[in-house]
Write a structure and sequence with these properties.
By secondary structure, this protein is mainly beta. The chain has a single domain, classed as Neuraminidase, CATH 2.120.10.30. Helix content is 6%, strand content 40%. The strands form 6 sheets. The protein has a 5-stranded antiparallel β-sheet with strand order 1-2-25-24-23, with no helix packed on it. Strands 3-4-5-6 form a 4-stranded antiparallel β-sheet, with no helix packed on it. A 4-stranded antiparallel β-sheet has the order 7-8-9-10. Strand 8 and strand 9 form a beta hairpin. The protein is globular, with a radius of gyration of 20 Å. It binds calcium ion (CA). Calcium ion (CA) binds next to loops.
Length: 395
């Protein structure tokens, strides 16, 4: 994709029509009516040649921070990717799906200059890894005052399924998604024994913390014997997207299913999201030996699911001024699907699902900047340039 490529909205419209046909013909696709045509926009390459970019944080100053999974934090300033990585980044357990992962500006960034980041972290001999949440101050040049907020109890040998994304609500909490670390499980055992179903660990959980890492007194499992009080929801597989919805105060997530069955979830405190007992991922034995049923009355249903994997990598609820037609909509980036998906909501129900743009490569992150523009991190696929792209309306 070249710089300043105008996008023909007809193509996006055609994708919506194709989706609607799948709804009619497949019989398994969740029903969603056609979306309105997308606004016209162009795609601008603001940097390229990054090494596996994982997350974007655009600053009010116009600077853009990008994490690279291997453990570097890069800065795009005045339209130029700075050659030297930013100093002060914590040591990470790089490899597989883990390393330096999410980065999000603190709600009070304007005064505190704080950024929050998630990392994969090793034990003493690197035989095990887990996910940790850290914060530091970015003074415009380097990171200082590095602090670990929480080292999660999600230890495992695998270098996969760390999660992990961050979201801040409007009342002083940070949410953190932790995946199941591909926890080994034998077919035929009681699936309720899987770590994602147990409350004594952080595997397959969404956590809710105060901004300093302490546990909010109103968390759903505070005071329950044997349960970790940081847990907000459980029964998740690989939730790689997390977003606060300003209109409602809700937090939503997207997660990877086993073979298909990717989910869009509305997070409700204390609820069980089913993994590995419940999944819509084909309802067959998958490569890890799970044999799930599609639903169970006491477990939370996804608000939407994809029978064919899009591999959702992040979600944002658009709240900016530059794309008025998208305000309040969820934008979801996809790795396998290599597309940006838009979900229009009516309350908590799905009003429409459409493709904004595809063919850009594997999209690792979608981010709304303070400028109201949409930033995408591309990790590969059809392009080896691993660019950071920005969607700008044609005006
Ligand atoms: Ca689920």
């Amino acid at each position: 994709m070249s710089t300043d490529t105008p996008v023909n909205p007809t193509a996006a419209r055609a994708a919506s029509v194709a989706l609607a046909l799948m709804v009619c013909l497949g019989g398994v696709m969740p029903m969603a009516p056609l979306a309105a045509a997308e606004p016209e926009f162009k795609i601008v390459t603001i940097a390229e040649g990054l090494d596996d970019p994982w997350a974007i944080a655009a600053l009010p100053s116009g600077d853009v921070l990008v994490t690279e999974k291997a453990g570097r934090l890069r800065l795009i300033r005045n339209g130029q990717l700075q050659a030297a990585p930013i100093e002060g980044v914590p040591k990470v357990r790089a490899g597989g799906q883990g390393g330096l992962m999410d980065i999000v500006l603190a709600p009070d960034f304007a005064t505190s200059r704080r950024v929050y980041m998630t990392i994969a972290k090793s034990n003493a001999d690197d035989s095990l890894g887990t996910t940790a949440l850290v914060r530091a101050r970015f003074d415009g040049t380097r990171l200082t005052d590095l602090e670990e907020i929480i080292e999660t109890k999600a230890w495992g040998e695998a270098r996969s399924h760390y999660g992990t994304r961050l979201a801040f609500d409007a009342s002083g909490h940070v949410f953190l998604s932790i995946a199941d670390r591909s926890s080994f499980y034998k077919t035929g055992r009681d699936l309720s024994e899987h770590p994602a179903q147990q409350l004594d660990n952080h595997l397959g959980k969404i956590l809710r913390l105060n901004l300093d890492g302490s546990v909010p007194a109103d968390n759903p499992f505070v005071g329950r014997a044997g349960a970790l009080p940081e847990i907000f929801t459980y029964g998740h597989r690989d939730p790689q997207g997390l977003a606060f919805r300003p209109e409602t105060g809700e937090v939503w997530s997207v997660e990877h299913g086993p073979i298909g069955g990717d989910e869009l979830n509305l997070l409700r405190p204390g609820r069980d999201y089913g993994w590995p007992i419940v999944s819509k991922g084909g309802n067959h034995v998958d490569v890890t030996g799970f044999h799930s049923i599609p639903s169970r009355a006491d477990m939370e249903e996804p608000r939407y699911f994809w029978p064919m994997s899009i591999a959702p990598s992040n979600i944002v609820f658009y709240s900016g001024k530059r794309f008025p037609a998208w305000r309040g909509n969820a934008l979801i980036s996809g790795l396998v699907g290599m597309k940006l998906t838009r979900v229009e909501l009516n309350g908590s129900e799905i009003a429409s699902v459409s493709t904004v743009v595809d063919g850009l490569g594997r999209i690792r992150d979608v981010h709304e900047g303070p400028d109201g523009l949409i930033y995408l991190a591309i990790t590969g696929g059809e392009t080896a340039k691993t660019p950071i792209l920005r969607l700008e309306p044609l005006e």
